[in-house]
Amino acid sequence: MSRSANDHPPLHPEHLHRRCDPEKFTFQTTSELEPLGATLGQDRALAAIEFAVGMPGDGYNLFVLGRAGSQKRAVVREFLASEAARQPAPSDWCYLNNFAEPHKPTAVELPPGRGSDLKQDMARLVEELKVAIPAAFESEHYRNRVAEISQEYEERHHDAVEALREEAEQENMSLVPTPHGFAIAPTRDGELLTDDHFEHLSEEDKQRVRQAIERITEKLREHLEQLPRWHKERRQRLKDLDREVTDLAVGQLIEQLKEGFADVEAVQVYLDQMREDVLANAQDFRPREERQVAILGMTPEPSLQRYAVNLIVDHASSEGAPIIYESHPSLPNLLGRVEHSSQFGTLTTDFSMIQPGALHRANGGYLVLDADRVLLEPFSWSALKRALFGREVRVESLGQFLSLVSTVTLEPEPIPLNVKIALVGERLLYYLLCEYDSDFGELFKVAADFEDRLDRTDETTELYARLIGTLADREALKPFARDAVARVIEHSARLLGDAEKLSTRLRDINDLLRESDYWAGKESSAAVSADHVQQAIDAQVHRLNRMHSQIKEEIQRRSILIDTDGARAGQVNGLSVYKLGSLMFGQPSRITATVRIGDGSVVDIERETELGGPIHSKGVLILTSYIGAKYLPRLPLSFSASLVFEQSYGGVEGDSASVAETCALLSALADLPVKQNLAVTGSLNQYGQVQVVGGVNEKIEGFFDICRARGLNGEQGVLLPADNVKHLMLRADVVQAAAAGQFHVYAIETIDQALSLLTGLEAGERQADGEYPRDTANHRVEQALMALAKLRQKFDQDKRQPAQESEAGGEDQ
After folding, report:
1. How far apart are the C-alpha atoms of 264 and 266, rounded to whole Å?
2. Which partner from 110, 366, 650, 711 sits 20 to 30 angstroms from 623, CA to CA?
3. Alpha-carbon distances, residue 598 vs 177, 593, 594, 638, 682 (angstroms)
4. Nearest CA-CA partner of 676 in 561, 551, 558
5. CA–CA distance, 400 with 258 (Å, rounded to integer)
6. Catalytic residue of the set 72, 420, 630, 699
7. Does 549 participate in catalysis according to the annotation?
């Protein structure tokens, strides 16, 4: 037999809140406790991180998943720091000018710390060359050699001209200098012939003169044709001299630098190429007045920046492998970028303007990224995958990345990539990536799933106390007294809504510790007490409960109709929970049901108006099935009913009201008044069992606050699923009211127990004769359904009879 309401006592106050007894602690304040070395309750996640770090091979990158506030990123970085400290510092990387193809800078790897040495040595070398080369060209030896070469060619030219002159004189000709070279004129007795004298010559003499002029002219032409070759030879000899002098000036300096980097083959090759470039462009080091380069009427200094070292990764002061966290993983911040400068209205760039990205800085170590931020940045996710698949970092502009650039741009040589990536994100994001990105599983093979909770045992309570002490020390807070530690532990369980668990969301705990320390400081207390912790909790709620306060006010003013006394048929106080930001609060909702003759359908008004979610609609369908199976299973249901959350102007989701809705419908069917001093929450299955729901603490407190505002009379209370008892961590004022007999919390396992408590009648169980006992709630429900079935049968008969008479009359005619 089901028990009556009087046989169903409320829960004992000790079941409403699981205390943490501060007397069980052996310390007075957390200053006496040893720091907690490992992260509490995250053994599974830490094992996954350790595996990912130690596992060689491609794709063993890490995705750290868990709820917000679990400080996943901080834990990962702390673990990686301990691992990185045991590893050697990775190589330095720099970009050097490619003298053969300047638009393709060369990437050079150096041992850690040697990059800065090379950069300083190269800068020093250039400064020395700016002194040594001009000095070499100003030396007397150089000037004498230049003069010798110039004099040699001047003498060669002079000797050739003199030979022609002598030959011309033998032919009675003379070489006459002109502004454009030489002219050949006939002579007689050492005097130039005038035109009149030439005309008086015989034809034979004229012919002789013409032939002589042709011979001399031909030889002069041959001489003049040799002059460009002689000038070229002269210039080449002067150029060779410049190379020789420059080589003498720079050779030793460069050789000394090569000796310092004898173990780096790439630097050796670069210095040889640099030496050739310096020898070919020695004039760039000479004084300004010796050069004749004009641009827009100006004579700019030639750039010696091509000899600089662009050190993009420097590990001179690094100890261990790098750990980089990139908070803004845009495409340039990940891959690096090439900057530009404006000169004479034109944007220019070179290898020295290459800036590193997070992948460069983390190369040889670890890179921590927020998964959602990478996915939100345009093209960053694709770029990251490309870098991991290719195992190289290629500095590209967005235009190059999208293959939209057709002009010649800077194309730095890619750098080999050896990095472990740790993506930090929510669980939903991880599962979505697994489902929709085929590359994700290949690149991120290890998942570190952070726990949200841990079991609340005596052992974990002691460890949690040490955790509180460790966090307080880390934040430089006042020590926490043991009663304060106990209150924090209780609140940790309350945050989860589970008396048997403790929260591992350290952000919430950290915030509570800081705020408790603030209130202790306001009172100039040396340690944080339980009162300070409670003050911090109350302040957190007060800052966010404006909306909750307004709703309670509207209920008190009866703008929102909620009854807390009397009895009404077809009307039950359901309980809802709302979350606004970080605040959760409960609110009673009036659920009503109406019944009439019909075909067994139950209209869910919330669903019909598209205010009800699918889970709520599922709950209504379940309660309909339950009623059909429990009462008159051999007869069709002959009623139509409607259910609604009164004064609900927003969405309704979840099945936690299905017990209340069932009781409202049964009450309306049997015209059984329901006590309005009780509220109910719980989910129903098809067998009439009451199932757990969420937010029970907030729901109970929401109804309690309304009852207390109107005056507690010892009759008010809340019905909740029996399996939810382990989740109870109610406020102290609710527990005190229950201990004083002013408010009650009932645990129910079946819908019959709920119906008995709400109506005051025994629910009743079906007897051997198939009937429910008289004067029980189930009997009245079944009788009401039987009466509706008879009415439906009579209605159908009356509707068919006129139709039959009409058909009979037609046949008589």
Report:
1. 6
2. 650
3. 133, 15, 12, 5, 28
4. 561
5. 36
6. 699
7. no
Say which of 2, 116, 503, 656 is annotated catalytic: 656
Q: Is the dihedral of CA 752, 755, 760, 761 positive or negative?
A: negative
> What would the two tokens of residue 83 be?
């691992």
* Residues 521, 482 contacting (CB under 8 angstroms): no
**Torsion angles phi and psi, residue 63, rounded to 5:** -115, 120
Residue 148 Cα distances to 172, 237, 563, angstroms: 35, 11, 119
| Residue 291: pLDDT band with limits 50, 70, 90 | very low
Residue 189 CB neighbour total at 10 angstroms: 6
Confidence band for 746, pLDDT divided at 50, 70 and 90: very high
- Measured in degrees and rounded to the nearest 5, phi and psi for residue 697 equal -65, -45
Q: Which two tokens stand for residue 782?
A: 């079944």
Give the DSSP letter of residue 656.
T
Contact between 17 and 766 (Cβ < 8 Å) = no
Backbone angles phi, psi at 159, to 5 degrees: -65, -40
Q: The tokens of 785 are what?
A: 């359904």
The DSSP code for 659 is H
Q: Quick: pLDDT tens for 769-792.
A: 889 999 899 999 999 888 888 888
Known catalytic residue at 656: yes
φ and ψ at residue 295, rounded to 5 degrees: -130, 120
Q: Which residues contact 87 (CB under 8 A, 6 or more apart)?
A: 320, 321, 365
Contact 60, 445 (CB under 8 A): yes
Q: Are 484 and 31 in contact (CB under 8 A)?
A: no
